[in-house]
Amino acid sequence: MIEQDLKTLEEKSIYIIREAKLKFKNIAALWSMGKDSTAMLALTRKAFMGKIPFPVIHIDNSVDFPETYTFREYLAKKWNFKVIVGHSEIKQDLVGSACCGKNKPETLKKIMAQHGFDALIVSIRRDEHGVRAKERYMSPRDRNFRWKYRNQPAELWDDYSSKMDTLGHIRVHPLLDWNELDVWRYIRQERIPINPLYFSKNGFRYRSLGCTHCTIALRSNAKTVDDIIKELRTTKQEERSGRSMDKESEYAMLRLRSLGYM
Amino acid sequence: MQVKFIALLGHKDHGKSTLIGSLLMQTGAATKVRIKEAEEYSKRLHKAFEPAFILDSFAEERLQEMTIDTTRAEIKHRNLAFALIDVPGHEELIKNMISGASYGEIALLLVSAKRDEGIRDQTKRHLFISRMLGIDRLVVAVNKMDTVGYDEGRFMEVKEGLVKFIEKIGFDTPNVAFVPISAYKGENLVRKSRKMRWYSGKPLLDALYVSATKTNKTQDGALRIIAQGVIPGKKGNLIVGRVISGKIKVGEKISILPLGIDAKTRAIIVKNRSVGTGNVGENVALELDTPISGNPRGAVISGSRDKPAVKDAVKLRIFVTGKFGDGMTAKFNGIDIPCKGIRVLRSVSTTTGDADKSKTAKALEAAEAELRLARKVPVENYEVTKELGRFVLYRKGKFVGIGTVMT
Q1: What share of chain A is helix, strand, coil (3-state, %, to 5)?
Q2: Is A5 in the B-facing interface, judged by CB distances under 8 Å?
């Protein structure tokens, strides 16, 4: 993995997060209590004088790890931001997994409608998946949450302002340029509090966090942020290799994303 | 590690995605999972292994064997990282090509040496667009050399066919490297190819490295900040924006155009810290001695003695992607400005570089035109301050073109 210049990445993300807040009327951010969306919150505080000036949404299927719930309460209090919890059901569907597949976007849809959010910050990165790599920094979803990936709007010259369908919403992706190692280096540099599940316990750690149903721990002895950075500098394994939805069936990620998955 | 952005250019099927796929594999940047996945889909489609599938991730892209939208992949070479920007080569996907190429610092053009392929309109059009976007460094890869038996004569033929055009549209020809390669077979990409001993130049990555490490004319530039809006601070509102050139200091007299506000900076905040100076690339929050009335979004902050011009009519170099007419809007620094009219002064062919007197702007062609805006905005020549010299044109919500300021 390439170690990019953190200052450049940071400035670009701050610019995009401010752009989202200043351009749209009513925005929110998704927070999974994972490392990426937690780093996004740290960047938000840098953009807004130490505050997080929008609500943060957790789509909860009630089977997240206990550590994740504890971390949610801890950080929300420490950084003083509002968390909206949406409860999603676990039921089988045609695409993706029962726990974190299509059911999560369904819950998100309800919350977005209830609060009238017109933009949503999502902390995806280009290096996570080939399909995510095709995203724009600001990416429209129609009223049914569909991603019209065959016809994305032009986005050039740092003008992240396109909006195609006024009835839908915009997904804002401030971390698109970052890679996994950049995120960890930033966590170290900024001493960002992080979910303890990322650190090795009994020889295993979680590298990418979903819920208890779709995430498996990978073999690792990395007990600190420094250890994780060292591990990532040499690993040949994929970040999301512990996540089932990436490989379940043909183009599962593509179909999930086009239906509104995060 | 410094990242250099490289925009791939070229006609469809001349091998852009295949090249990036091969480079990812040869430099060890592609993970096993990605390679395996590409292998599986190649097999499923009853094809030999297709490196392009490492990049082309949409189902439609693999089935139709074409890139639909832009993406990026990073590779390391010596002390640099190259972010390779893949773009679609199809004409009808030009908006995605421009979106990708607008982030490029160096252009890497692919042109196929295959007998029935060679230099096409789209080959030249992509070059024209990249030059218009302000890219001034170019490497040309003559691809598919394996299909012509690695023949030097064919390589020279392609090269000679392009040199004049490249010079005409304003690239510095002596500094443009031409490299014969086979992206599919992996020849002359990372290491010198043994199949083309007649070629005395550098392999592709080294040629890119030379281009990337050439020193750019550094411009100190006058202070320019594009305002994004205001955010609440501890003592009232702060105006926020990104420094695009120059420096801003505490106590400095500044102007905000087109609002016509003159003020002095009381404090500068960068990432929650009070600083004495805000530098290029930084997102600053400014506390001023004068309250700001009105929304400063899209306004430009400059030193009070070195302000940009404020105009409602600009002469542009344009590239046309759709139909011009009534009801156009221009996107400019994050705001939408209604257009009062656009008048084509002369049209320019994107495939020959020649100008003619026709006063119409045809799709996929270029022109020089005068754009009249519904209100005044601070503008500068694109060559001086890119950010203050570029417009994206829309009509009825559709992307119809881009324009760069000439005067």
Answers
A1: 40, 10, 50
A2: yes
Contact A15 B228 (CB under 8 A): yes
Average pLDDT over chain A, rounded to an integer: 85
Of B99, B242, B285, the CB nearest to A156: B99
Chain B residues closer than 8 Å to A179 by CB: 74
Distance of CA B61 to CAs B57, B68, B286, Å? 7, 6, 46
Task: Name the band, by pLDDT with cuts 50, 70 and 90, for residue B206.
Answer: very high
Q: Compute the average pLDDT of residues B146-162.
A: 96
For residue A241, list chain B residues with Cβ-Cβ distance below 8 A: 33
Q: Do domains B2-213 and B310-405 have the same CATH topology?
A: no
Give the minimum alpha-carbon distance from B83 to chain A in angstroms, rounded to a whole number. Answer: 10
Closest chain A CA to residue B41: A250
Q: Which of B40, B26, B34, B10 is nearest to B75 (CA)?
A: B26
pLDDT for residue B145: 97
Task: Specify burial of residue B267 (Cβ count, 10 A radius: 0-12, 13-18, 19+).
Answer: middle
Report the chain B residue with the minimal C-alpha distance to residue A20: B228
Q: Please check whether residue B289 is in contact with residue B249, taking contact to mean a CB–CB distance below 8 angstroms.
A: no
Chain A residue with CA closest to B387: the answer is A157
Per-residue model confidence (pLDDT) at position A161: 59
Superfamily of domain B2-213: P-loop containing nucleotide triphosphate hydrolases (3.40.50.300)
- Alpha-carbon span B252 to B265, nearest angstrom: 6
pLDDT digits (tens, 9 = 90+) for A90-142: 766 655 566 666 677 888 889 999 999 999 999 999 888 777 777 888 888 88
Are A156 and B392 in contact (CB < 8 Å)?
A: yes
Taken in order B287, B290, B296, B301, the sign of the CA dihedral is: negative
CATH class for the region spanning B224-303: mainly beta
- Domain B310-405 in CATH 2.40.30.10: yes
| Residue of chain B minimizing CA distance to A125 | B72
Q: Do B231 and A21 touch (CB under 8 A)?
A: yes
Least CB-CB distance to A159: which of B95, B229, B331? B331
A137 within 8 A of A173, measured Cβ to Cβ: yes
Tens of pLDDT along B227-255?
Answer: 999 999 988 899 999 999 999 999 999 99
Report residue B341's pLDDT band, with 50, 70 and 90 as the boundaries.
very high
pLDDT (tens digit per residue) in A153-211: 777 777 765 555 567 889 999 999 999 999 999 999 999 999 999 999 999 888 888 77
Q: Which domains does chain A have, with CATH numbers?
A: 6-178+248-258 (3.40.50.620), 196-246 (no CATH)
- Any idea where the domains of chain B sit in the sequence? 2-213, 224-303, 310-405
**ipTM exceeds 0.90:** no
Provide the chain A residues 134-173 that lie in CB contact (below 8 A) with chain B. Answer: 134, 136, 149-150, 152-159, 161, 164
